[in-house]
């Protein structure tokens, strides 16, 4: 049965929420201004959103602060470090270059959002410039910036995200091996997968 309270047009949506405050609009730029560059260079974590024929994808990316390089005010460079080889984000970008990025900075309430278009580069010189311990990424995303703005701190404050007293103990959640076993009818995962997992992760970061 249709939801009688469903909002299905922009006029009804805008009437419900009202007009945005001026500060919500003036903070958006079409380039990386120095203030936004400082936030990008302080961030060790970004969520990368992409879309493709199969749907949407949002992938976590992380490394040392500033791992996303500001090449110039209109270009960001994001190395694709070692992962699980699903390459969902990259598959999407090949077919639809639109991307969204959400930067988090530990201890800071404001987040930074960037929208743009990405291309995948395998330029050897570019890859080598991102090498760590002699290991270069397989590709680098070259992101043409279209919009940049910071998000206010309300979500982070409400979630108490950076409060160490709110950290979740790992034993209170199912392990990676247990999840894999549940999803595969015990073909993959289990205790054998969990044994030494953290050591394997550290050994294969790059």
From TrEMBL:
<protein>
    <recommendedName>
        <fullName>Pyridoxamine 5'-phosphate oxidase N-terminal domain-containing protein</fullName>
    </recommendedName>
</protein>
<dbReference type="Pfam" id="PF01243">
    <property type="entry name" value="PNPOx_N"/>
</dbReference>
<dbReference type="InterPro" id="IPR011576">
    <property type="entry name" value="Pyridox_Oxase_N"/>
</dbReference>
<feature type="domain" description="Pyridoxamine 5'-phosphate oxidase N-terminal">
    <location>
        <begin position="34"/>
        <end position="152"/>
    </location>
</feature>
<dbReference type="InterPro" id="IPR024029">
    <property type="entry name" value="Pyridox_Oxase_FMN-dep"/>
</dbReference>
<dbReference type="InterPro" id="IPR012349">
    <property type="entry name" value="Split_barrel_FMN-bd"/>
</dbReference>
């Amino acid at each position: 049965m249709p939801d009688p309270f469903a909002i299905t047009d922009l006029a009804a949506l805008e009437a419900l929420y009202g007009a945005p405050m001026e500060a919500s609009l003036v903070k958006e730029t079409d380039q990386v201004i120095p203030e936004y560059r400082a936030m990008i260079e302080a961030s060790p974590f970004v969520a990368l959103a992409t879309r493709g024929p199969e749907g949407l994808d949002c992938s976590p990316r992380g490394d040392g602060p500033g791992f996303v390089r500001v090449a110039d005010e209109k270009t960001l460079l994001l190395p694709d470090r070692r992962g699980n080889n699903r390459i969902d984000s990259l598959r999407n970008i090949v077919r639809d270059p639109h991307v969204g990025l959400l930067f988090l900075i530990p201890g800071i309430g404001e987040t930074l959002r960037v929208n743009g278009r990405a291309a995948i580069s395998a330029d050897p010189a570019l890859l080598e410039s991102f090498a760590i311990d002699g290991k270069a990424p397989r590709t680098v995303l070259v992101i043409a910036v279209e919009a940049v703005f910071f998000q206010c701190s309300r979500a982070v404050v409400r979630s108490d995200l950076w409060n160490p007293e709110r950290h979740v103990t790992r034993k209170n959640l199912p392990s990676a091996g247990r999840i894999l076993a549940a999803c595969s009818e015990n073909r993959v995962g289990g205790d054998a997968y969990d044994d030494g997992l953290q050591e394997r992760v550290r050994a294969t970061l790059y």
